[in-house]
């Protein structure tokens, strides 16, 4: 008998190069056996070498897409990526405040891989004030977390303090600060789950094919939540999934810049956890620590 897959709503921008954005989200969710619905917030002209142009979708069009999905589908989890501006953050936050965006995973796309700010200060504040309070988990990278707390983060201790502070001051249920930008041979990601800090550490994966790791990680977390798993096991499984994708794509030569990961680099069936093919959901706290991902966009 065919089982109907759980549904995730992705609210994010499109990447014409296919490595990040909604394209990466849809592949990640498909790899987890989850059905993806989408609301496109922006169209970007980009490839592995950079972004050439951005067209921000009118906010009423974004709202119409969200409304159309929610009116017809039993959405089990929501993932946000590039929201592009304060008006879009506000409309998404309105749906979240109404309780219509379940299991909300917020990937706050605020800072580029080169360190450039992507949003005006008003949009950054709207994330903190309006959207984060309704998030199941927020997943900033090191640069984004630095912007959000207003100071440079340079150590694992700093990351833990920032994760705790962001959750406490914004009302987010949990915060995961990704440490891929730390200048060290070993990287550590830190999760504050509302009660405890968890350090997820391991060696870096030497590859230039890391475009879209942040998008893929957040969507994999949403896939776990949509499938009925608890937050921390979903985070651990998502990290393991992205690490497999990084390792499998190290030899790829797609484009001339930062290439994508392999979203379909499944584990052997005997190694897959109860989350299905390619998943590593385990009992209790999850399946141990896994290598952190390098920073993607």
The count of domains is 1
**Uncertain spans, ≥5 residues at pLDDT below 50?**
268-297
- Span from first to last CA? 39 Å
The CATH homology group name? Ribokinase
Largest sheet: 6 strands, mixed
Question: What CATH architecture do you see?
Answer: 3-Layer(aba) Sandwich
Strand content: 15-25%
CATH topology: UDP-N-acetylmuramoyl-L-alanine:D-glutamate ligase
- Average the pLDDT over all residues and give the rounded result: 88
Structural class: alpha/beta
Helix/strand order, N-terminal first: EHEEHEHEHEHHEEEHH
Describe this structure in words.
The chain is built from 8 helices and 9 strands. With 297 residues, the protein is an alpha/beta fold. It is 35% helix and 19% strand. Strand 1, helix 1 and strand 2 (35-47) form a beta-alpha-beta unit. The chain has a single domain (7-271), classed as UDP-N-acetylmuramoyl-L-alanine:D-glutamate ligase. It has a 6-stranded mixed beta sheet, with helices on both faces. It is globular and about 50 Å long. Residues 268-297 have low confidence and may be disordered.
């Amino acid at each position: 008998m065919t089982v109907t897959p759980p549904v995730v709503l992705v609210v994010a921008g499109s990447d014409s190069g296919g490595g990040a954005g909604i394209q990466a989200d849809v592949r990640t969710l498909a790899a987890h056996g989850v059905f993806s619905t989408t609301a496109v917030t922006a169209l970007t002209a980009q490839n592995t070498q950079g972004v050439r142009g951005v067209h921000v979708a009118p906010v009423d069009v974004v709202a119409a897409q969200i409304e159309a999905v929610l009116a017809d589908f039993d959405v089990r989890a929501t993932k946000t990526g590039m929201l592009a501006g304060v008006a879009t953050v506000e409309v998404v936050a309105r749906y979240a405040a109404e309780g219509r965006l379940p299991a909300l995973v917020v990937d706050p796309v605020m800072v580029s891989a080169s360190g450039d700010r992507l949003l005006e200060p008003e949009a950054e504040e709207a994330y903190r004030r309006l959207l984060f309070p309704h998030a199941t988990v927020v997943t900033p990278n090191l640069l984004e977390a630095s912007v959000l707390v207003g100071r440079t983060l340079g150590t694992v201790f700093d990351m833990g303090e920032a994760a705790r502070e962001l959750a406490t001051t914004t009302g987010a249920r949990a915060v995961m600060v990704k440490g891929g930008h730390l200048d060290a041979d070993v990287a550590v990601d830190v999760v504050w789950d509302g009660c405890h800090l968890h350090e997820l550490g391991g060696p870096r994966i030497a590859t230039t094919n890391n475009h879209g790791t942040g998008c893929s990680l957040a969507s994999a977390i949403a896939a776990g939540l949509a499938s009925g798993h608890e937050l921390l096991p979903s985070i651990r499984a998502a990290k393991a999934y992205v690490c497999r994708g990084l390792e499998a794509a190290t030899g790829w030569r797609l484009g001339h810049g930062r290439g994508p990961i392999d979203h379909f680099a499944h584990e052997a069936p005997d190694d897959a956890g109860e989350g299905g093919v390619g998943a590593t959901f385990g009992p209790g706290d999850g399946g141990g620590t896994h290598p952190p991902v390098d920073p993607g966009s």
